[in-house]
Amino acid sequence: MIEIQGLKKYFGHIRAVDDVSFSVARGEVLGFLGPNGAGKSTTMKMATGFLAPTAGTARICGFDVQAEPVSAKRKMGYLPEGAPAYPDMTAAAFLDFIAAIRGFDGIARAKRVAAAVERTQLAGILDQSIDTLSKGFKRRVGLAQALLHDPDVLILDEPTDGLDPNQKHEVRNLIRSMAADKAIVISTHILEEVDAICTRAIIIAKGRVLADGTPEALEKRSRWHYAVSFVTDAAAIDALQAALGAHSGVGGFERIAGEDGLAMLTAFPRAGAPMLAELGAIARASGIRIDEIREERGRLDEVFRTITTASQAA
Q: Is 148 helix (H, G, I), strand (E, B) or coil?
C-alpha cells in the first residue's frame, strides 16, 4: 500500500533525509519515531507529494506520487504537522470544502462530512471558526479531513499532539478500529503511542532508518528485557542481592527506594536470557519475604534513547 524507496532530501548543504526505504501493507500501523529534527516530517511530506524528493520514489497503492499525483492522493488521507487549515472558516465549512475538493456533492457530501464529524466527535464545535478552537480541536478537525473520503492509506503527523488524555484514548481507539482495512503511518515522538496502537515501528535519526521491527522485537533490544524485579523490605535488600548475585546469569542490579519501608531490586540478565524461574527459586530458598516479583518485557524508551544518542555521537 505504501512503498518508499531511497528517499533523499537536501536543503542546500543540509541532508534532511538520507536514503530512507520502507513499505507498509494493509493492516499495518507503522509508528515513525525519531527525535526532533530526525527527518520524520520531511519524509512524510515527500511520501504524500507535498515536497519533491532530491532522489528516490514514493508510491501509494501502486501510484508514483510524483508521476501520478492525483491518483496517489485519491488513495490517501494526510494530517500534516500542525494540522493547518483556513482559520477564518468554521469547522463545518472547512470539512464541506474538503469534501467538495474530494469530488463529493449533494447527499454524498453531507454523508461524508457527517461520518467524519461523528468519528472525530466534533459536533459541538462545528459552527466555531477554526482560529477560535483549542489546539486539540484543531487537531481533530485535521484528522476529520484526512478521514473524510475513507482512504486506503492514512499518513498522520503527530495525530494526538495537543489532545488531553481522554481525547488521545478516543483517537487511538479510532485508529485501531480502522487499522484492519488500511495502511497507516503515524509520525510521533510519544513512545506510549507505539505500545498503544502500532504493529510496527521505525526509528529514524539524522535522516536515516536505524531500526525497523515490531514493538516487541525492539523491546528485546533493551537491557530490561528479561530483567527480574523484586519488591521486598528495604532492610533485606542487601541480603537479597547477595543471594541473587550467586546466579551466573545475573549481570547487574539496580535499586529503587519505595514507600512504607519497601524497596525494589532489579536483576539484569548477563546474556539476554530468561531467568525468572531460577531467581524466584533462589529468593524463596533465601527465606526473605518477597512482596512482588515480575519479569520485565523491555523498555522502548531506553532502546530509542540508546539508538538515537549513538547516532548523534557518530
A: coil
